[in-house]
Amino acid sequence: MLKKTLSSLAMIGLGFAMVNSASAEDYPQTTHEKAEQLQQPLPDAAAKRAPTKAELAKPNPELKVDTVNEKFAKDFPRQYNSWAKTAEQTEFHREVEDDPRMIVLWGGYAFAKEFNSPRGHFYTVTDVRNILRTGAPKDANSGPQPMACWTCKGPDVARLISELGEEGYFSGKWAREGAQVVNSIGCADCHDTKSQEFKDGKPALRIARPHVLRALDAVGKNFATSDRTDQRAAICANCHVEYYFDKTEGVNNVVFPWYKGRDVDSIEKYYDEINFSDWTHSISKAPMLKAQHPDFEAWSMGTHGKNGVTCVDCHMAKTQDKDGKVYTDHQVVGNPAKDNFENTCARCHDQSKETMVKTVEQHKADVRDVLVKLEDQLVKAHFEAKAAWDAGATQDEMKDALQAIRHAQWRWDYAAASHGMHIHAPDVALKVIASGLDRAADARAKLAVILAKHGVQQPIKYPDVSTAEKAWKVMGIDIEKERKDKEEFIKTVIPEWNKEAVEKGLILTPPPAK
């Protein structure tokens, strides 16, 4: 199986190279060198740890953040109207229902209840309110999630951090500021809207979240002194990155685990050294890692990142209105090859749109094929670990097998959670998944020895998890209760949050209900 996977990796890497007709010479060499720097060891001066509570940013009354997106419609109609079109991106897939294996893989973690594919930026607040993962809190101090779960959802976050400081913002439960985080991702997430530069119609790019600036500094990419290319890429790293909640200081602040590098092995090494885990798996008891969405990391390792082609160049490309005015399209196109070919791929590639779309789809299918193979191995490993525990295995016996499960699933999640990794860096995706298959095989080999030692007949009997309903039942999740509680929360709590936000002038129109 691994030999076949590595063969697929080589073929897809070759195919991607053949399709890509843009070369390093198409961009300034200095930009290419800067992109290559993303893969180099960190500067000696870089911090090797998360910040202490004392090092968290203090309140900054000088930082002003305009959070109401509608206020920019008059002065920037082209950009605003294209941003508003993200409301048309309504389609999403209920991923754990489409692939019930995920319910097992995330056993004991809230993602097992609900995980959906992303849709337009217009819905960031709506979707985090409605997702089962945030539960049904009745007041500011209840619910399963911390305040940090709001951090990527809109400009109100930067405003709150400037008002409260990081310690003040990150403390407490998610529901605490439900009436404050009400504007979805928009203008002030990326631009210094108070500056004269912005008023003059220039980008005035800004990152107003201190934890993002710290992460960039740690890898030698100070935002203020970076060139335009690096700044454009870093803006998307506000949210489209791997991160974790550092709980060592009792604050649950957001940290990017880049202190040893941004590839899958370096981040894993960092997590292992600080003994971090997101949760303990409910049946295998393995200390697990949950990848978020390492899009920035995947992009930086791919062909486009290495050649200085940024997220904005493809997903927010320059376009021309009917009057001939050129502007940046803020609709954030998900599949540029399919939906905006002439303004994106065609500017560098000489292949036809049909060829490019087929290439993207083939990469996606190939990555998905091996990803599912890894999922199958992991599902079996979790149930085999449970069988070993049930047979009387000891912690000492299980330690290495559980670590192998942790490492294998981390690689699955790193590849699965990165939006578009199949085109951003298909060769990296397949290499990551192949190494995950290696570790899953190692875990199952170790478990086979333990099961044999304790007299367990193999293969064990695996539960039927072929549908989401069956998987939820096997994993002990009362999905109907979860849904009922969430419906009550949406019906009773959300209207109060919206009412308070409107009364305070934090928003002109409440976020859509669905």
> What series of H and E elements makes up the topology?
HHHHHHHHHHHEEHEEHHHEEHHHHHHH
CATH topology name of the domain at 43-259 and 478-503: Flavocytochrome C3, Chain A, domain 2
> What's the story with the biggest beta sheet?
2 strands, antiparallel
Number of strands: 6
Strand numbers in spatial order across the main sheet: 1-2
State the secondary-structure class: mainly alpha
Per DSSP, the total helix count is 22
Shape: globular
The CATH architecture of the domain at 43-259 and 478-503 can be given as Orthogonal Bundle
Cα distance, first to last residue?
43 Å
How would you name the CATH homologous superfamily of the domain at 43-259 and 478-503? Answer: Flavocytochrome C3, Chain A
Low-confidence parts, pLDDT < 50 over ≥5 residues? Answer: 1-46
| Assigned CATH class of the domain at 43-259 and 478-503 | Mainly Alpha
Approximately how much helix is present in the residues? 40-55%
EC number: 1.7.2.2
Cofactor: heme c; Ca(2+)
Function: Catalyzes the reduction of nitrite to ammonia, consuming six electrons in the process. Has very low activity toward hydroxylamine. Has even lower activity toward sulfite. Sulfite reductase activity is maximal at neutral pH.
Binding site for heme c 4: 311, 314-315, 424
